[in-house]
Design brief:
CATH class of the largest domain: Alpha Beta
Distance between the termini: 141 Å
CATH superfamily of the largest domain: Ribonuclease H-like superfamily/Ribonuclease H
Radius of gyration: 37 Å
CATH topology of the largest domain: Nucleotidyltransferase, domain 5
Strand order of the largest sheet: 3-2-1-4-5
Order of helices and strands: HHHHHHEEEHEHEHHHEEEHEEEH
Number of strands: 11
Shape: elongated
Number of domains: 4
Helix content: 25-40%
Structural class: alpha+beta
CATH architecture of the largest domain: 2-Layer Sandwich
């Protein structure tokens, strides 16, 4: 009985073609075209088939270990390091850290298979096709910038939950801005954009969600609708508000990458404050772009330089119109500001502009000219109503109300007061 021969699907296709060649139904040149191999390779396969039959087509390396396999001891050592230092790291990031911090060069797919075999990594299930059509990337760097904020435990248990502001270029997937702040506010986006504009210049358009930071329901006098929209309008940058999170999927997907990689990088460097993290973000951004950025379809840089009239300190600030009182006082957010008396008399009942910059400083301007002012002390708050006073103030519905002795009702001529009654 002849031994059983195991053939791969490719070798089975070659077997069918070679049988036709031996039978004279197919030429060797035509067989080479059908199999996608050279004519000389077909001649070698024909000789092997005539000499050994179907077994001559089977690979001699089958069942033998590869010459390119990793040393089992090296792989076991790498897995031990991963279990000790990078227990919650993914295979790709763990392989990068092995090469960077331990000088162990191992392919991430090899490490992935090894981690799956020892059940230290669970492969993610493949999801089905997305219901929405993909949007093609823009052609030029700076043509479209996607921005968003991600509220997350970036310091894990070492620090408070905070918001990471992200700006990513649509054409190249370059992270062009990262900034960490306690919450997601307009001032935080101004801080992000100040560093971005100073480094790259003005993009053609900005893609954001429909949050009130970017799109207010009540539009302002210039039609911008929000402080951020007004600032982009002054910089001649188009603001596009996405109709769904999937529309700005590039920045949404990078949130997942940052929540995995950046959190672990901060942990390895024992960074637990927003100030230290913002210093490190510049270094991380360059490394992230080196790893994930792609070249654009066009070499043209769509960024435009800042013009002399673009005062970023003033444009990237929150500006609010306020009316000056007859005493030269401006009220803003429950705070009182007295304008210098030498110019207050000329500004009574006129409108000035209160500007709050990205550092929280307050400036009062009239026609883009800063005014001298001083903050007044807050008035004494009203005395809190205690439970005893509140009980006295609440009328008892079961008791008839008796007017006071000096009530006007008791001063009537027809009804004398009880003190003067006979």
């Amino acid at each position: 009985m002849e031994p059983l021969v195991s053939l791969s699907p490719m070798e089975l296709r070659r077997l069918a073609a070679l049988e036709r060649v031996i039978a004279g139904d197919l030429t060797q040149v035509r067989a080479a075209e059908l199999l996608g191999i050279s004519y000389r390779q077909v001649k070698r396969l024909v000789r092997a088939f005539r000499r050994s039959g179907p077994a001559g087509l089977a690979s001699n390396r089958r069942g033998r270990p590869s010459n390119r396999r990793y040393n089992p001891e090296l792989l076991a050592h790498a897995l031990a390091i991963v279990r000790e230092h990078y227990d919650d790291f993914g295979p790709t990031l763990a392989a990068e850290k092995l090469a960077e911090r331990h000088a162990i060069a191992i392919d991430h797919e090899t490490l992935r298979r090894a981690m799956i075999r020892e059940a230290s990594w669970i492969a993610r299930p493949r999801t089905g096709p997305k219901p929405h059509l993909p949007r093609l990337r823009r052609d030029c760097f700076g043509e479209l910038i996607q921005i968003d904020g991600s509220q997350h435990n970036w310091f894990e248990k070492r620090g408070p939950k905070c918001c990471l502001y992200v700006a990513i270029d649509d054409a190249t997937k370059n992270l062009v801005g990262l900034h960490l702040a306690p919450t997601e506010t307009t001032i935080g986006y101004f801080a992000l954009f100040t560093a971005y504009l100073q480094e790259y210049g003005r993009p053609l358009s900005v893609y954001s969600d429909r949050s009130g930071i970017f799109r207010a329901t009540k539009e302002t006098a210039d039609g911008a609708g929000s402080q951020f929209g007004r600032a982009l309008n002054e910089l001649d940058i188009e603001l596009i508000c996405a109709q769904s999170p999937q529309a700005k999927g590039r920045v949404e997907r990078v949130h997942g990458t940052l929540q995995d990689r950046l959190v672990k990088e901060l942990r390895l460097r024992n960074i637990s404050t927003i100030e230290a993290a913002n210093v490190f973000l510049n270094t991380y951004r360059l490394e992230h772009n080196r790893r994930f950025a792609t070249p654009p379809r066009s070499d043209f840089n769509a960024h435009r330089p800042l013009e002399p009239q673009h005062d970023l300190e003033r444009i990237l600030s929150c500006r609010f119109p306020r009316l000056v009182s007859a005493k030269g006082i401006v009220s803003f957010e429950n705070r009182l500001f007295a304008i210098d008396y030498r110019i207050a008399q000329h500004l009574r009942s006129r409108t000035v502009e209160v500007r709050v910059d990205r550092l929280g400083r307050i400036v009062i301007e009239q026609g883009e000219v800063p005014l001298r002012f001083a903050e007044l002390p807050n008035p004494q708050p009203k005395r809190a109503v205690t439970s005893e006073r509140a009980d006295r103030r609440v009328p008892n519905p079961m008791k008839a109300h008796t007017p006071a002795p000096k009530h006007p009702w008791r001063q009537s001529r027809r009804f004398p007061t009880p003190s003067t009654a006979p």
